[in-house]
């Protein structure tokens, strides 16, 4: 069993190379694009859906087989071809260049694996079974998705503001910590889900954060307009 180390990578404007253009490449390309990466695809053929993604996001696509040197400027690489020889060559080049590499059908040729994820604005939950069962990772994702609903997006926008106000206040470190814990413990996601802010308003007043009350309405309205 491999002991993995979980991290959240900032891929904004980083060149990520995806080798292959099938169904699996499609999924990996989309998640890289969503993370703001600069994606380059190398594959003689790509699926219709991937063609659309390439057009929509103006991605680079080289319509040819992988060749050594393709990873020259890459920050990371994902190899999603159906050819074991190509997969191995990509891994070898990535190792030589010391670039993180994911080979989608061979965990032994991966220096990182991609988790299943639940995203609600700033909340990002990553799930891995260490490759034991990607289907189980997916099922766990589906369960978490129903538990952590869309209200968590607003919840975290609000908590970020609450935390900023508390940290910039002149309170003692102990008092700051108490307030941060109080807000983290309050069932605010439920209030947001039910659109009932009575208790939250009382809490904000009690903790000296009344200035944030007008924000509640703005946040709630913007979430309902979506
Ligand atoms: C090691 C890893 C490497 C990597 O890709 O990073 C890997 C490897 C392999 N996957 C295989 C199969 C499937 N993978 C999926 C789906 C996903 N696979 C993902 C990640 C990972 N897959 C990494 C480990 C993740 C972990 O820690 O568990 C997810 C989470 C993220 C993503 O791909 O973006 C995404 C779910 C996203 C979601 O819906 O939330 C489904 C479909 C499904 O169930 O929906 C199936 C068919 C069902 C099944 O086999 O379970 C096979 C056999 C291939 C074959 O036999 O042809 C291998 C190779 C092997 O195991 O040797
Ligand atoms: N990690 C994961 O989540 C999963 C992995 N897999 C495995 O991933 C692999 C890919 O799966 P699919 O996308 O369904 O395969 P696919 O057969 O649909 O696509 C393969 C792609 O590789 C490209 N390709 C072939 N030779 C190439 C070369 N020399 N250079 C560049 N590109 C080349 C082809 O043009 C094609 O676009 C398979 O081995 C499959 O078993 C399958 C399901 C999930």
TrEMBL record:
Claim: Ribonucleoprotein is one of the keywords in the record: no
Recorded coiled-coil stretches: none
Catalytic activity: precorrin-2 + NAD(+) = sirohydrochlorin + NADH + 2 H(+)
InterPro entries: Met8-like, NAD(P)-bd_dom_sf, SirC_C, Sirohaem_synthase_central, Sirohaem_synthase_N
Domain Siroheme synthase central: 120-146
Annotated GO biological process: siroheme biosynthetic process
Keyword set, alphabetical order: NAD, Oxidoreductase, Porphyrin biosynthesis
Protein name as it appears in the record: precorrin-2 dehydrogenase
